[in-house]
Amino acid sequence: MNESLTPAVEQAMRDAARIAIMPRFGTAAARAIADKAQAPGDSEPVTAADRECEEILSERLAALIPGAKVIGEEAVHHDPELLDGLGSGTCWIIDPLDGTANFAAGTGPFGVLVALAEDGVPVGGWILDPLSGRFCAALAGHGASLNGETWHARASGRDRPLVAVTRLMPDLDRGRLLAALAEQAEVLDSPRCAADQYPRIASGENDMTLFTRTLPWDHAAGIVFLNEAGGRAARPDGTAYRCDDAREGLIAATTGEDWERMASRLAALGETLSRR
């Protein structure tokens, strides 16, 4: 993997955020949202910022690796068959605005996510926080960086680990899970922004996050970043994440030991983190 990709990807992401996202933040344009959800109970807001940011990134990233596929969240909404290309060849994966609902409400967190996959395996991940300017980057086998500095995942050192739990679960199932986890951990709601969760875990602000839905544009970049930083993100059964795997459920943790403890706890509860 060519390490020279990162400066070019970072510049493309910062340019896209500067042009498409930040001028709309806190304005009526940000609040002009549509809902593209396909499944009952889901909410998938989209704004003009999502669409323009994806257009900019798609053009810029395609030029970096000629012949690579480009699969963006908004493009998939219009053409779901694009997902068929995730399992083979070189593929850019874009979430132009993760945390759209937060953005539309005039609050954070929200972010931009770009991943690179080879034959379905995520091998590159880049995460931009347009509000703070924080930039996370990782290439498989080359480690992780935060704002240009080598980064290693840092455990929080709390006596009771801090665990963020997705809200994308049936209320009854989630209530049971929260009650069980609260016996040994401090539990909080995940704010529906994976672009914020993965850096928080790698920084020790959260010890773990539990996800149900694991769409590639939401998770591929963060998984590469966290794993390269020395944390662990994997399916509850221990298998590695693949971009073409439609299963649900993921545990992300600051350390491998924390990951193992949580996986054992979920197994004892019979919890797979799948809504199906």
Structure description:
- The protein has 2 domains: 5-151, Fructose-1,6-Bisphosphatase, Chain A, domain 1 (2-Layer Sandwich), CATH 3.30.540.10; 162-269, 3-Layer(aba) Sandwich (D-Maltodextrin-Binding Protein, domain 2).
- The strands form 3 sheets. Strands 3-4-5-6-7-8-9 form a 7-stranded mixed sheet, with helices on both faces. It has a 5-stranded mixed sheet with strand order 11-10-12-14-13, with helices on both faces. A two-stranded antiparallel sheet has the order 1-2.
- By secondary structure, it is of the alpha+beta class.
- The chain is built from 9 helices and 14 strands.
- Helix 1 runs antiparallel to helix 3 (48-64) and helix 7 (194-202) packs parallel to helix 8 (216-229).
- The longest helix is centred in the first third of the chain and has 17 residues, at 5-21.
- It has helices at 5-21, 28-31, 48-64, 73-78, 100-104, 171-181, 194-202, 216-229, 256-269, and strands at 34-35, 45-46, 69-72, 90-98, 111-118, 121-128, 135-139, 144-146, 149-151, 162-165, 186-189, 208-211, 232-234, 250-253.
- Strand 5 (111-118) and strand 6 (121-128) form a beta hairpin.
- The model is unreliable at 37-42 (pLDDT under 50).
